[in-house]
Amino acid sequence: MATGSRTVRPRSSVWLSERKTPRRKGDQQPVGLDHLKIVAATMRLLDAEGLAGFSMRRLAAELGVTAMSVYWYVETKDHLLELALDAAMGEIALPIETVRSVEAAGPVEGPEYTPAEPRDWRDQLRQVASEYRRVLVRHPWLAALLGEYLNIGPNAVVFNHAALAVMRNSGLPDDRITSALALVYQFVYGFGTIEGRFAARCRAAGLTQDELYHEMMGTVADRIEFDEARKVMEARGGTTVQEMQDRDFTFALDLAIAGIESLKER
C-alpha cells in the first residue's frame, strides 16, 4: 500500500528472518543466556506488567545483563514478542490424535499430553476451545499480539493443524471448515480476552475477582434500569465469578457445537 511517496510494507517476522549471527562486529555471545531463558523472562515480565510495562531495558535488568546482550539473540523487540507469542501457543494442550499428522514437521516445544484423550470431535473441540481460553486468561497480553503478528511459529502451526483436524472430523465439507473455526476462534478469543482483562484489573486493584464483582454490582444495586439484567445474571447461577464464567463458556460453546451439527445435517 502506498501513502504518498512512502511504501508501507508488512511487518517482518522472526520466523522468516535469516539472521543467524550478531550484527555488530566485535559482539561476543553473552555467557549464561539462551533463547529459552530470554523468552521465559519475557513472558514473566509480560504477565506481571503487561505490554505497556515491557521494554528491552526492563528485560535486560531482569536477566542481569545489558540490553545489547539480549540483542545478540534477537534482532528486534517485535521478534522477541513473536517468540513469546509462540511459546504461549505451545502451552495449549491439544488432543494427541489431532497432532500426529504434523509430527513430521519436527519436535515442537509444548505441553506434555495426558493419556486420556477425547476421540469424539465434539469433545476434542471442547478441549481445544477450553485450552485456548485458559492460555488467553493466563497471559492477558496474548490477545493483543495475536492481532499484531503473523503467528506462524511452530507451536501455532501445530495448533492450527489440530483445530483443522478436529473440524474435519465433524464431517463438515472443506468449504465450510474455515467458517466453523472462525465461529469458535472468535468466540473463545472474545471470551478469554475479557476474562483475562478482568483478572488483570483485579490483580492491579489488589482485589479478588469476587470482591471486585460484588463491589461493581453494589454500585448499581438501586438503579432501576439494571433490574432486568440483574435478574438474568442471578438466574444463571454460580456462587463465584469463576463458576459464572465457566457456566457461560460451557453453554455458549455447546450452542456453537449444536449449530455446527445442525448445519452439517442439512
Structure description:
The protein has 266 residues and is mainly alpha-helical. The chain has two domains: 12-89, Orthogonal Bundle (Arc Repressor Mutant, subunit A); 96-265, Tetracycline Repressor, domain 2. Helix content is 61%, strand content 2%. It has twelve helices and two strands. It has helices spanning 35-49, 56-63, 67-71, 77-89, 96-99, 121-138, 142-146, 154-169, 174-205, 209-219, 227-235, 241-265, and strands at residues 2-3, 6-7. Helix 1 crosses helix 4, helix 6 (121-138) runs antiparallel to helix 8 (154-169) and helix 8 packs across helix 9. The protein is flat, with a radius of gyration of 22 Å. It starts with a strand and ends with a helix. The relative contact order is 0.10. Mean pLDDT is 84; it is low at 1-6 and 104-116.
Write the SSE topology.
Blueprint: E1 2-3, E2 6-7, H1 35-49, H2 56-63, H3 67-71, H4 77-89, H5 96-99, H6 121-138, H7 142-146, H8 154-169, H9 174-205, H10 209-219, H11 227-235, H12 241-265
Helix pairs in contact: 1-2, 1-4, 4-8, 6-8, 6-9, 8-9, 9-12
DNA-binding region: 55-74
InterPro entries: Homeodomain-like_sf, HTH-type_TetR-like_transc_reg, HTH_TetR, Repressor_TetR_C, Tet_transcr_reg_TetR-rel_C_sf
Protein name: TetR family transcriptional regulator
* Helix and strand element order: EEHHHHHHHHHHHH
Q: If you consult CATH, what is the topology of the largest domain? A: Tetracycline Repressor, domain 2
Number of discrete helical segments: 12
Number of domains: 2
Q: Mind telling me the CATH class of the largest domain? A: Mainly Alpha
Keywords: DNA-binding, Transcription, Transcription regulation
GO biological process, one term: negative regulation of DNA-templated transcription
Pfam families: TetR_C_1 (PF02909), TetR_N (PF00440)
Protein name: TetR family transcriptional regulator
